[in-house]
Amino acid sequence: MNAATAGAAAPPRRWAEAMLLVPALVIGIGAYAQVGLATDGSLPADFWAWSAVGVLLAVAAHVAVRLLAPRSDQALLPVVVALNGLGLALIARLDVAEALRAAARGQPVPTPTAPSQLLWTVLGVALFVVVLVVVRDPRQLQRYTYTAMAVGLVLILLPLVPVLGVTINGASIWIRVAGMSFQPAEVGKIALIVFFAGYLVVTRDALAVARSRVLGIDLPRGRDLGPILVAWLVSLGVLVFENDLGTSLLFFALFVTMLYVATGRRGWIVIGALLFLAGSFAAYQLFGHVGARIDTWLDPFADASGAGFQNAQALYGMAEGGILGTGIGEGSPDLVPYANSDFIIATVGEELGLTGLMAVLVMYAVLVERGLRAALAARDVFGRLLATGLAVVLGLQVFIVVGGVTGLIPLTGLTTPFMSAGGSSLIANWMLIALLLRVGDAAASPAPAPVPIVDDALTEVVPR
Amino acid sequence: MSQLTLTLIQLGFLALLWFMVLSVASVMRSDLFARRRAKSSARADARAARSAAKASAKAGTGTRPTPAARPKPGRGSPRQLVVTAGAQSGLSVELGATPITIGRAEENTIALDDDYVSGRHARVYPHEGSWVVEDLGSTNGTFLGTTKVTSPTVIPSSGTIRIGKSELKLRK
Fold first, then answer.
1. Cα-based torsion angle of the residue sequence B42, B44, B46, B47 in order, rounded to the nearest 10 degrees
2. Are the beta carbons of A339 and A113 closer than 8 angstroms?
3. Which residues between 39 and 58 in chain A have a beta carbon less than 8 angstroms from any beta carbon of chain B?
4. What percent of chain B has pLDDT over 90?
5. Do B13 and A31 make contact, defined as CB atoms within 8 angstroms?
6. Residue B110 is inside which H or E element, if any?
7. B33 vs A: CB within 8 A
8. Does any CB of chain B come closer than 8 Å to the CB of residue A360?
9. Which of A187, A204, A246, B27 might form a disulfide with A412, Cβ 3.0–4.6 angstroms?
C-alpha cells in the first residue's frame, strides 16, 4: 500500500526544536541575570545553579519528545520553555522587590515564591513526560469520556468539601493538602476537554440538526438545548458557590466554542452569547463582588486607592513601561497587588514595555496556532476536537486574564499560563502541551496497514 | 553597573524576545513551504497515500475491509459512482485512486442534501482492486441493498448503496 511507504518516512530529527530551545533558554536565563544586575549590580547568588536546572529540564523535555512523540510539532516546546523561564525570572524579580520593601520597613523578609515555582516547574516537566509515556494514542482517552466528566466535575467541586477547601481572597477554588494549596479546577479543565471531545464526537450530528433559520443563522432544535443548559448551570454554580468568575467564564466559553467547532452551527454561538449575557446580568444584580468588578472595569480610577487600586496600579505600571519598558529590575511592578500571579502581565508590560508584551502575546498565539494545526491534521474526529479544545482553552485563558489586566474586559482572575506563580496552573498546562504534542504526533504517524480477514458472511460475492 | 550598560542589556533582551518569535515564525514558514513543495511535485501520490492512510487507520481500529471479490482492474472495473435516486439524482463522480466521501457536509466529495444523512456519512474507497463502502459512524446507517453496512464491505458490481433517501451505484 502507498500509505506504508509514504507514511513510514523517518521521523524528523527535531533539530529545529533543539535550535529553538537555545534562544528560549537564553530568554529565561538572561532575564534572571538581569534581575541580579539591575537590582544588585551582580549576578544572583544562585544564578549558575538555576541556569543549570533550567537547561537540564529543557534537555530532558526535548529528549522525551524525541523518543516519545518524534513526529509532533517542533515549535511548541521551545515557546513553552521561553514563557516558563521568563515567568520564573519575573517571579524572582518580584521576590527581590518584596524583600527590599520589607527590609525598608523593618519587617521580616517574606518567603520568596520563585524557589517553589522552580520546584513546580520540575514537577510540571516530570508530568509532561509521564503524560507522553502513558498516553500513547489520543484515541485511548476517548474510552474514558464519562470517567473524564466525573473526574472533571469532582475536581471542580472539590474546594466545596468542608475540610479540604480553603477560601483565599473570597474565592473558594483552592484545596489544601499537607500544607500545600492547589487549584484542582486547573487540572479539571483538561479532564473536561477530554469529556467534551468524546461527548461531541457521538452527539455532534444530532446537535447539528437545524430547526429554523433566523436572520441567516440556523437555530438548533429545542430539545437539543439540554447540554448547553447543563454547561451553563455548572458554570453558574462555580460562580455562585466558589465565587470564581474566571473559571466559570472559561468553562462556558470553552464548551460553546467546542460545540460550534463540532457542529459548524453559528446558532450555538448566538445561544451561548445570550445565555452568557443573561447569566452575567443576573450575577451583576445579585452578587456584590461581580458588580464591584464591573464598576471597577468601567472606571478603575473612580476609587483608585480602594476597589480600583489593583487595576489602577497595573495601568500606571504599564504606562510607566511605555514602548520599551523600564528594563527588568528597574520598574516598581511590586506596587500591584498579586503582581506575581494574576497580574504578571502587568509586570511584563511595565518592565519589558509594549515591545516585550507583544512578543509574549505572539508566543501565546503561536501555541494556539500550533494546537489548531495539530487539530486540522488529526485523522479522527476525537483527536481534532481534543486538540481544538486544548488550544482554545489556552487562548481563552490568556484572553480573559490579559483582557482583565489591561482593562479591556472586567477582571476575572485567572492565571497566565506558564508565567503566573501557582503550581496547579503550571503543571496542568505542561500536561496540556504534552497532550497537544501527542495529537500532533499521532496525526503525522503512518497509519497501521489493514489486515485482510476472511470473514465475508455478509458480503455478496459476484463471480466474474 | 552603569545605566548605559543596563539600557543596552534591556534593549538586547527585547531584541532577544523578538529573535525568538521570528525564529519560531521561520520554522513555521519552512514547515508550510516544505509541505507545499511536496504537494506540487507529487500531489496525486501524496493524496492517494494520505487517503489510503486514512482508510487503513480506520480499518486498523477494529473493522477491516473484507477482500471477498478481487476483480483485476481493467476491462470490467467500474469507472463512476452515480447517484440514482434522491435529491441529487444524476450526479456522478469519477472513480480514481482517492476515496469518495459521502455526507451532508459540503466538504464531502458527494454532498447529499438530505436530513437523514450525517455530516460525514460514508466513504467509498478502492481496496485491492475492488471498491469498498464503509459507514463512518452515521446516525441512520448505510445500506448495501437491504443489508446494513457494519464493517467495510466490498460493493458488488450490481449492488446499490442506500444512504438516507438517496441511492448510489457503481457504473462502468
1. 160
2. no
3. 41
4. 9
5. yes
6. strand B110-111
7. no
8. yes
9. A246
**The C-alpha cell that represents A298 in the structure block:** 468601567
Partner B, chain A 149-188, Cβ-Cβ below 8 Å: none
C-alpha cell at A10: 523517518
Q: Per the CB < 8 Å rule, is A34 touching B45? A: no
Q: What is the pLDDT along chain A (464 residues), one digit of tens a residue?
A: 344 334 446 777 788 899 999 999 999 999 999 998 888 888 888 899 999 999 999 999 999 999 999 888 889 999 999 999 999 999 999 998 888 888 888 888 888 888 889 999 999 999 999 999 998 888 888 888 888 888 988 888 887 777 677 776 666 677 776 666 778 888 889 999 999 999 888 888 777 776 666 666 666 666 677 777 877 788 788 777 777 788 888 888 998 999 898 888 888 888 888 988 888 888 888 877 788 888 888 888 888 788 888 888 999 999 998 899 888 888 888 888 888 888 899 999 999 999 999 999 999 999 999 999 899 888 788 999 999 999 999 999 999 999 999 989 888 878 899 999 888 899 999 999 999 999 999 888 776 555 454 444 555 666 66
Element (DSSP H or E) covering residue A77: helix A76-105
What letter would DSSP give residue A179? T
How far is C-alpha A57 from the chain's CA centre?
Answer: 20
Interface of B with A in 5-24 (CB under 8 A): 6-7, 9-11, 13-14, 16-21, 23-24
**b (16+ CB within 10 A) / e for B30-49:** ebeeeeeeeeeeeeeebbbb
Q: What is the reported pTM? A: 0.76
Hey, is the C-beta of A229 within 8 angstroms of any chain B C-beta? Answer: no
Half-sphere exposure (CA, 13 Å, Cβ side) for A63?
7
User: Rounded to an integer, what distance in angstroms lies between the CA atom of residue B104 and that of residue B161?
Assistant: 16
User: How far apart, in Å, are the Cα atoms of A285 and each of A236, A276, A300, A303?
Assistant: 14, 14, 20, 20
DSSP class of residue B150? -
Distance of CA B38 to the CA centre of its chain: 18
Out of A1, A460, A461, name the one closest to residue B52 (CB): A1
Query: In this complex, do A366 and B24 lie within 8 Å of one another by their Cβ atoms?
Result: yes
Tell me whether residues A205 and B118 touch, CB distance under 8 A.
yes
Phi, psi of B44 (to 5 degrees): -65, -45
Q: Is A258 on the interface with B (CB under 8 A)?
A: no
Mark yes or no for CB contact B14/A352 under 8 Å. yes
Helices (H) and strands (E) in chain B, counts: 2, 11
* Complex-level ipTM: 0.83
A12 in reach of chain B (CB within 8 A): no
Residue with cell 510539532: A73
Tracing cell 516546546 back to the chain, one arrives at A77
For residue A82, list chain B residues with Cβ-Cβ distance below 8 A: 20
A323 touches chain B (CB under 8 A): no
Rounded to whole angstroms, the maximal C-alpha distance in chain B is 88
Cβ contact B17–A359 (<8 Å) = yes
Nearest CA in chain B to A462: B156
Report how far residue B171's alpha carbon sits from residue B160's, in angstroms, rounded to the nearest whole number.
11
